[in-house]
Amino acid sequence: MKISKGGAGRKRPSPGLLVTLVSVILYCLLVWLTVRPVAGWYAVGKADKKGLIKAARYDSGNAVYPYLLGRYYSLNLENPDPAKAISYYRRALALSPLQPGAWVGLSRSLLNEGRTSEAEYALERAVLLNPSDGNLMWKASTFWLMNGNVDKAVSALRRFILIDPEGQLSVYDLCWKLKLDNSYLLRNLLPHEYPYERKYLEYLIAAKRPAEAEEVWDLIDKNTVDRDLFVRYVNFLIDGGLYDRAEKDWRQVAIKAAGLKSGGSLPLIWNPDFENEILNGGFGWSIGETGGVDVFIDDSVHVTGNRSLGVSFSGEENPDVTIARQVVRTRPGARYTLRGYIKTNSLTTTNGIFLSVEGHRCTGLSRRSDTVSGTNFWREVTVDFEVPQDCFAAIVKIRRERSNKLDNKIAGTAWIDGLSLKEQAGTVTTASGKP
């Protein structure tokens, strides 16, 4: 009997069986790879410590679970453990180093352990990974402020306001509480674009910081400034008695806006014929509003120029109203004459229209013209007055006073035009200096 060399009765596995075996192994591996994250997620349960540890064991390649454990140990108010938090944060970053949140958490935990330089490195990594996160920029600025690095803190705050312009006021409040120099903030914090310069100027106005507001105003391109901000800024200076600076800035913008030449002398009253736009503030006219009174510009009735200021009364009210007012510069001790023209048509009650002058931020100056009522062609009215020694500005008003008579409801129309204010010749002043 012959015996075969390969061994009697031994059969080789068929190719189909090998393919099936390999397929089963691959299928089991695929199922495990699929089920492992699900098992990890299922193990999380209520996301407590025990559940997170199980999840991290089931799905050891997932950076989420060590990150959550790091948060658990760093934010646990009852039993914080910065050392364990650091360990888990580092494990999460080893698995996935591009996690800004993990770098932030690691930085916070390192700082709690007094490892400042390591904490700063971790924070810088977070900032590099997510420079468009405003909340992160705020946290970074707080970290650097706590550790005395003002330059880095201000740089982070600058990024913060670029990302979140609505948060500017919080930044400015913080910087002023830290007593940072305004010039330093202008160089290092404030973006040199009009929307940011405007917001900071408004903040300084509200905070009543005129010197700093002037610094910001000098930075602003006057071709971009809007009327409301301009008027508000000049009003702020006037209200603070900073008349010279207010007048300088007023002329810088208002002359150009009115199409006037800046080289020549200007009248003491701005826009005396109402030819230019009413700016409602600054050294221009401000119009009063009250019930039963309508103030308007009339280009069909005028005594000088092409327009006049008109006012009509409904006949249903007895208003005490300043129809228009303007702050004007004056010299202490000087004598002036205010002149104007008033036209009326069927203006009822004896309490009609008159001009008046009062001191601005000073006492001892209150003068008025005759009152014009009824129907009158252009009637000239004047006010002569002397400026007190402590008075650097006055208020010119166009007024109507409330009547105490029974028949006191005023109706009709009036026009005012051709106002002028001139210093009388031979005035001698003993005042020293001007604000």
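Above is the first protein from milestone M3; the second protein from the same milestone is given next.
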Amino acid sequence: MGARPPLIAYNINLDTGNVDIAKNIARAIRGSSGGFPSVKGLGIMIEETGKAQVTINVCDFKKVPLHRIFEIVKREAARYGVAVISSEIVGLTPLDALVDAAEFYLQFDGFDRSQVLENRLLE
């Protein structure tokens, strides 16, 4: 019997109907193509919106945090003249993965994870 870190199903939506761009970006980030270790990715078309999506499984968010994946997808998309329009998490995700992203984007001064209410309630 073995255990693995929680998998995070993470999708990033692009402002394009060109699924080839999403496929190229997915290839750039997935571990099997030389991208991030513990990241799997595909480029797909969302028929309801007519927009392409990079659909990602993050197998170990401590090795590759969500904000790092998001920033690389954003930069890769910009190379094609495409913007990221949204992202989504499908299902459950560890609180630490979201706090990591908040720390990165909000650039808190002196932040400590003990300031997170849920962490205090668990003490």
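Note on the second protein: Residues 8-91 form a domain with the Alpha-Beta Plaits fold (CATH 3.30.70.670).
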